[in-house]
Amino acid sequence: MLYTDARGFGFTNTSAIVDKQSSDDALTGDFITSDQPIYFNVKVPEGRYEVTLTLGASNDGSATTVKAESRRLMLEDIHTTAGEVVKKTFLLDVRSPQISATERIKRKPREMVFNNWDNKLNLEFNGRKPCVSSVSITEMEDVPVIFLAGNSTVTDQEYEPWASWGQMLPRFLKPEIVVANFAESGETLRSFKAENRLTKILSEMNVGDYLFIEFAHNDQKPGGAHVEPFTTYKDELKYFINGAREKGGKPVLVTSMHRRNFDENGKIINTLDQYPEAMRQTAKEENVPLIDLNGMSKEFYEALGPEDSKKAFVHYPAGTFPAQEKPLADNTHFNPYGAYQLAKCIVQGIKEQQIDLVKFLIDDLPVYDPAKPDNFADFYWPQSLPASTVKPEGS
After folding, report:
1. How far is CA 264 from the centre of its chain?
2. 343 near 379, Cβ under 8 Å?
3. Which of 354, 267, 368, 357 is nearest to 309 (CA)?
4. Residue 55 burial (CB < 10 Å; 0-12/13-18/19+)?
5. What pLDDT sits at residue 20?
6. How crowded is residue 27: how many other Cβ atoms within 10 Å of its Cβ?
């Protein structure tokens, strides 16, 4: 069944979907599969939802990756054996730009078509052989939230091959907490406030929720949103910190990752001036946990080296993606492999800083050493259908 507003649920691409039956069980005995990504939408109001999926049932096994909304990674490469059925659950944030009867987020024109803002709960079933038997969606109340405030390196990137650590983070969390990623490409501390994005976060924040704050790439540029590292940058960070604390929230500062810029000795050149150091100082002054993604990213890039580090960024020859006539060579924005490694850095930072958020991390996560990143050849990412050669705003 195709999605219609009148029906309120359905698929957006039924032509490639195959419906199969393995037994007479009404709930688990049949399933859908496809050799293309499957998109399923449900019209729901703004809120937090528990999504439980029944996967598998195929007589020759299955392998399913689930993304949601704007390509948030929720479940990674879930395998079943022949005839096996498994249930998997995650929590999902569905948002609206509305804050009150008279106030709303001032979105950019490009955001108007993003899945994050379409008043639907969007699921993508992807992988080597996705097999889905059932979908159960339940509205949840009073669940803890991790709010993300940041720029293009944090936001849910809508299109392949772009990605950020923020959209990879849900994969590492138990289904007891939800990520609400309000980051957007091109943002600065001041523009994030001016566009009411921080107001929206604070309007929803409850006691015990978290606010992760990562800005610097765009704040350092000349213009009306520019802030100096040891004065106005620190002042703006403290504004975010105080706003969260007034709501009973728990702020966490994240230093911005380096750009890919090597010297002749294969060492990273700092292009972020003193902004990471200013954030480190702010964390000490305000007694706020700090995840030093700046330091970890340096180890990560240098471990790969000047050439192989391109594999973590949007570096692709012409013709890799539809209508891509020119090579892509971006040394700021990440592809899924790079974003996934940085999300692992964030998780490791949570553990090292002993943030109480650690109780929400999935069990048995190994220690992650950015100086020994996962092998690129072993990384599997089933691409979503929407792709774009347009570079995200910000650099």
Report:
1. 33
2. no
3. 267
4. buried
5. 86
6. 11
- The confidence score (pLDDT) of residue 323 equals 86
Q: What is the pLDDT of residues 21-45, one digit of tens each?
A: 877 787 777 899 999 999 999 999 9
| CA nearest to 163, candidates 73, 294, 297, 242 | 73
Q: How far is CA 155 from CA 169, 179, 333, 366, 367, in A?
A: 11, 11, 11, 25, 25
Say how many C-beta atoms besides its own lie within 10 A of residue 9's C-beta. Answer: 16
Sheet holding 62-68: strands in order across?
Answer: 9-11, 38-43, 120-129, 62-68, 72-80
Per the listing, tokens 């350092």 go with 220
Task: Report pLDDT for 307.
Answer: 98
Radius of gyration of the chain (CA): 21
pLDDT of residue 26: 74
Cα–Cα distance measured from residue 245 to residue 211, given in angstroms and rounded to the nearest whole number: 10
Say if CB 66 and CB 74 are below 8 A apart: yes
pLDDT tens-digit profile of 290-313?
999 999 999 999 999 999 999 999
Tell me the C-alpha to C-alpha distance, in Å, between residue 16 and each of 36, 124, 160, 350. Answer: 7, 14, 20, 41
pLDDT tens per residue across span 183-212: 999 999 999 999 999 999 999 999 999 999
